[in-house]
Each structure stands twice: as structure tokens, then as C-alpha cells.
Amino acid sequence: MDKHLQSTLHEDRIFPPSDDFSARARIKSRKELDALRAKAEADHEGFWAGLARKELDWQTDFTQTLDESHAPHYQWFSDGKLNISYNCLDRHLAAHGDKTALIFEGEQGDTRHISYRELHREVCLFANGLKSLGVAAGDRVILYMPMTPEAVIAMQACARIGATHSVVFGGFSAESLKDRIENAGAKVVITADGGHRGGKVVALKAATDDALSRGCESLEKVVVLKRAGNAVTLQDDRDVWWHDLIEGQDETCEPLWVDAEHPLFLLYTSGSTGKPKGVQHASAGYLLNAITTMKWVFDIRHDDIFWCTADVGWITGHTYVAYGPLAVGATQIIYEGAPSVPDMGRFWKVCQDHKATIFYTAPTAIRALMKAGDDIPANYDLSSLRLLGSVGEPINPEAWMWYHRVIGGERCPIVDTWWQTETGAHMIAPIPGAVTTKPGSCTLPLPGIAIDIVDPDGQPISEPNQGGVLVIKKPWPSMIRTVWGDDQRYYDTYWGMFDGKYYVAGDNARRDEDGYYWIMGRIDDVLNISGHRLGTMEVESALVAHPQVAEAAVVGRPHAIKGESIFAFVVLKGERSADGIDEDLTRELRDWVAQQIGPIAKPDDIRYADNLPKTRSGKIMRRLLRTIAAGEEITQDTSTLENEAILQQLQGKT
Ligand code: PRX
User: What is the DSSP string of 73-137?
Assistant: First the structure.
């Protein structure tokens, strides 16, 4: 095996699990893993049905495992009934009610420990509060909150009463919030006065007021958590404080038994065209894959202290903060703020102080922390860590090695997990006690997940190291059910490319001789900025909404820390400066985009030109723009360009 590896891979370092780790792991060897995978291959439905009965508590058992009659709107366990909050809380109370569920640390250093019993009580109080506002099963509730235990409480409370939540990341603008409230037809927004992030107070209530003043007709009530203590105005008939809402509520709230397919949440994510789409997940299937991956990939044990650094505004913060860790009865850390406050040692201090054993973060954070130097983590005791994880984008081998050496003390396996908002849970990832890792590869598909790489005709590519389109060939329980309110877009985006045959993830990948997967990046016009997806179209629409902008094209440019940064080419309505640079206007446009979408969408570079490179049919040649943005020489064929001369100008040469 080694001979092949050496000869063909760019990256030839391999890291087998230590005997010590494997001996104590849930899945102890490659042999055991392969047997599990073979079992799933032999009987896909039987495999998932068995796990669904083992891992979930059902109020009514299901008789049908997979219903394909509405494909590609697949349904799992559809005549079964259960409650997600019951599965995350109530079922642990008898044996582990006093176990700590959440260890919270605010950015300013305040801490709270919340046991399963206390969390259950808080969820019941708030669920009853929501009911008193008229929230019923199927109603949509938007969360626009800081990363505090109340965000988890609110999500669990929605699940308890069958309301469908949609969390909007607190870094998104009022305009983005408004779009999501309107698209979801939400009845209630749950927010806070403010949250602490990066040493500042993020004024969430003020942004909510702003969003609501722009429309949002479906909206009836706003619940406001008092967190940062900043001044806010409450509108009498519409707004209520969280603490007033739960005052006098009953401490028990019977879980509502819902169908397995009941919509648990919507989460808006960027696509290549138009506005963000509401990815809709179901209940039972979603939780099942959250649980199996907590066990297989994170090897979670009763005594672990699990820390996933993601905000609940992203899918990672749903599956590996709000649901997965609770469903398996784990103890987890929630940290409110930025990794840089008060300095770049904060994550390591949190790991040390709360004795984290499993740490899961994004390559962009790893790179930023690596840049700060080895001296900083050396100041902290990281010996409690036993497993590290990475998510959101390909991790470059240099960052992987640093993570392994400096944070993991060369003793912790690293699980590089490939998945998406739409997949609900890990799809390709190493099982840490069983799979030898290679820096930069997310390794092998999980049992019951049928991944392949195909050519543009949909033919599987069996030759090693040939790039192609990453597809999932069989439905899986935690898959996206539809795009909220837009079944056609669901079909077009994920199934259209191969006429409904495969789920198309939108990534390119290759597979090496050992069957290991290497993600090569997106095939569509989706950017990956610090592990977060942004459509080029969204940023372009925001730019052209500015009165001075006639046309804009946005591409990604490689960035040492963020992975990719945004480079915008802009055509103005009036005169442009001769050298294509205009610092005042650039500042104004950057702020403008931040207002329209959110600070993560701010272009790092803006270049002005008289035109954009277009084909004769008027299509912007983004490939060329990517080359220019990266500062590389243009070697592509430019003969199909209508206006070849523009290239000089775009390169800043005229
Ligand atoms: O391109 C892949 C990249 O992130 C995309 C999914 O983004 P999102 O839905 O925002 O979810 C991010 C968190 C799950 C994928 O299509 N991606 C995610 N994880 C990895 C990755 N690329 C390479 N390696 C990964 N481990």
C-alpha cells in the first residue's frame, strides 16, 4: 500500500490511530468498520432501520423505513412518531439528570454550568412561553441570538412543541434577517438586546427592529433575551422580555409527538443563483445521523467534555451543539465570543479551564491561531484533549500538521469531516480508532453513505486521482427534504444534473488508490469564506444595488487565513479613476455590502473597470477574473471574448 501512496500522492504522510486510542474506541479497527460498512451495503434500509430503533426513542414505531414514492423528496421512518426534544433531554433524566449538559463561558468571562435537569426545566418554561404567544406546531420561529445557552434552549423549545425554527446568524444584517423572516413566513423572532463578540456588543434587537420596519408582515411577536444590558426599545404590543415570558409558566411541558418527517428546522444557505435558500430538514432522520456521527466520528463517551466552536447560526452549530451532543447525553462547552478576545490564547484557555477532551473547529480558525505562533498554546495545559476535528473547507496539510503537533501533542487523531448544510451530518470522515488519516483528506465515506465521483455524463470514475463531481447515490436519513417553498429549486440544485439519479453536492473531488477522498472545491459559483458559504450572485446583487454601481462580478481569491477572500470587479455608472483604485468609494461599497448581507460578505478587494470580460453571448468569464484576482498570468484562451482589450484594464495595467 505504501508504495502506491508514495508514488502518486502529493501528501504522503500517514497517521494510523494509536493502539491506545483504538483499544478504547467505539469502533476499534478497520476490520470492524469495514464489517459495518458491508452490513449497510448489503441492506441499506435494514441498516438504517436497525439504528433508528436502537438510537431513537419512539412514541410510535415506524413500519416503513424509506418511502421513495415522492423522490427525490425521500421520506424516512415516515409513519413513526417521536419528539426531538424528548430524545435530547427527557430520556437522560432518570439516569443522568444531574450530569452537566452545558458549560457556558461568555466572552467577558462569566460562566454557567447547566445540568440536564435544569436544561429540561428551562426548555419547558420557554416552550410554554412560546405556546402562550400562540406558537403552534408547524409555525416558523426565527432565532437571531448570541451564542448563549438560551439559543439552544429556544431551539429545543421549538422542537418540543413542533414549531419549525430557523436560526439566522447574528453576524447577518437587518436586510438579510428581513429576507429570511419573509421567506419563512415566520410568526415570532427570538433575539437578545445584544451579544458579546470581538470585544463589542452586537446590537441584535436594534437590527431586528430595523428588519421589521422594512416589511415582515407575517411577524407577530418578538421575544428579547436580556444579555448584554445595552439600551433597547420594546414595542408594547409586539415585544416581550424572555424573563417576563417565562415568569409563572409551568415547569413541565409535555412533548408534542410529531411525525418523523415533521420539519424540525429551516436553515438558509447560499447557492449559485438568487437569494439564499431555506434548506428544510425533517426530524427523526436528522437526529439519527446526528447521533450516529457523534458516536462513530467523535467517538463520544460518557466522560467526554465536547467542544464544537461553531455558532448555532450554522449547520455545525445545529448538529454538533444544539442536537447531537444532547441526544447522546454528553457534556459540552459553549463559548459566546471570538477566539481573539482578550488574545489569541482564548480557545486554549477555554480548553484548559473546562478540560475539553474533544475539540472541533474550522480550518480558518486553525490557520489564524497558527499564525499567532506556537508560544501561545504552549502557555496552556491541553493534555485533556484526546480528539480533534475540522470542518467547513479543505484543511491544508500545513495547518493539519500544526493542529496535530501543537494542539494535539501528536497524540490526538484528527477527524476532517466533509458534509454540508444539506446533508445534515458528516458524510465522509475518518473513524478515529479505525482509519489511518492523511493530512488534507477527509478519508472515507461513513457506513450507509454511498459516495461516488462521476464524470459530466454521470459515469462513475474508477481510476484513482481523477477529479470529478462528488455525488451521493442513495438517500440517507438526515438529507435535505426540500428548499422551503421551492420544490423546483430543490430539484434543479441537487438532482437536475443527473436527472434525479444522484444527489449532487456541488463539490469536485478525487479519490486516491486507497479510496480516500480529497475535496477539490466547489463546481458552482459559491465562495467559501472562512468555512462559510456565500453565493457570488448575492454579493453582486448587493453591489449593483448601490446607486453608483452599474455592473459587478465577484470571484474568490486564495487567502492565507480565510481560505478564500472576495474580489469584486465593478463597473461604475459615472467616471472611474484612471488607475482603477478609489479608496473612498471602496470603503463605502464595503460598508454597503456589510449592511446588505453582513460583514462576512465584505469584499477584500475592489477593482474598477469600464467593462467586464464577456463572451459574445454576454456571459461573464469568471475563470479569467479568478486568474486576475489571484494575480496570475492569463494562459486561458481569450479568443471568445467580445472585448479582449478590457483584460489589460482589469489587471490594473491601464
Ligand atoms: O465545499 C464543501 C465545504 O463546505 C461546503 C458546505 O458548506 P456548508 O453547507 O456551509 O457547511 C459547512 C459545514 C458542514 C461543502 O460543499 N466543506 C465542508 N466540509 C469540508 C469541506 N470541504 C473540504 N473538506 C471538508 N471537511
Answer: S-EESTT-EE-HHIIIIIHHHHHHTTSEEEEEE-TTS-EEEEEHHHHHHHHHHHHHHHHHTT--T
Q: Closest Cα to atom 22, ligand 1: which residue?
A: 393
Q: Give CA–CA dist 521/504, Å, rounded.
A: 13
Between 353 and 649, the higher pLDDT residue:
353
CA angle, corner 269, sides to 180 and 211, nearest 5?
A: 25
Q: Where are the beta strands (DSSP E) in 367-511?
A: 387-391, 414-417, 451-454, 468-472, 482-483, 503-511
User: What values do phi and psi take at 626, rounded to 5?
Assistant: -65, -40
Condensed to tens digits (0 to 9), the pLDDT of residues 608-631 reads 988 888 877 777 888 889 999 999
Residue with C-alpha cell 420561529? 141
CA distances, 64 to each of 77, 115, 392 (Å):
6, 36, 34
Alpha-carbon distances, residue 335 vs 148, 195, 443, 451, 586 (angstroms): 7, 12, 29, 34, 34
482 lines ligand 1 (CB under 6 A): no
Q: Is the CB of 522 under 6 A from ligand 1?
A: yes
pLDDT tens per residue, range 313-370: 999 999 999 999 999 999 999 999 999 999 999 999 999 999 999 999 999 999 999 9
Query: What span, in angstroms and rounded, lies between the C-alpha atoms of 407 and 409?
Result: 6
Distance 416 CA to ligand 1 centre (A): 10
pLDDT tens per residue across span 239-291: 999 999 999 999 999 999 999 999 999 999 987 766 889 999 999 999 999 99
Pocket test for ligand 1, best of 419, 446, 471 (most atoms within 8 A of CB): 419
Distance from Cα 458 to the centre of ligand 1, integer Å: 22
Q: Which of 62-76, 78-92, 309-323, 528-542 has the lowest mean pLDDT?
A: 528-542
419 lines ligand 1 (CB under 6 A): yes
pLDDT at residue 2, rounded to an integer: 35
Q: How far apart are CA 595 and CA 573, in angstroms?
A: 21
Instruction: Quote the ligand 1 centre to 391 CA distance (angstroms).
Output: 7
Ligand 1 pocket check for 393: Cβ under 6 Å: yes
- pLDDT tens readout for residues 121-147: 999 999 999 999 999 999 999 999 999
* CB-based burial label for 348 (10 Å; 0-12, 13-18, 19+): buried
Q: What gap in Å lies between CA 447 and CA 280, rounded to an integer?
A: 24
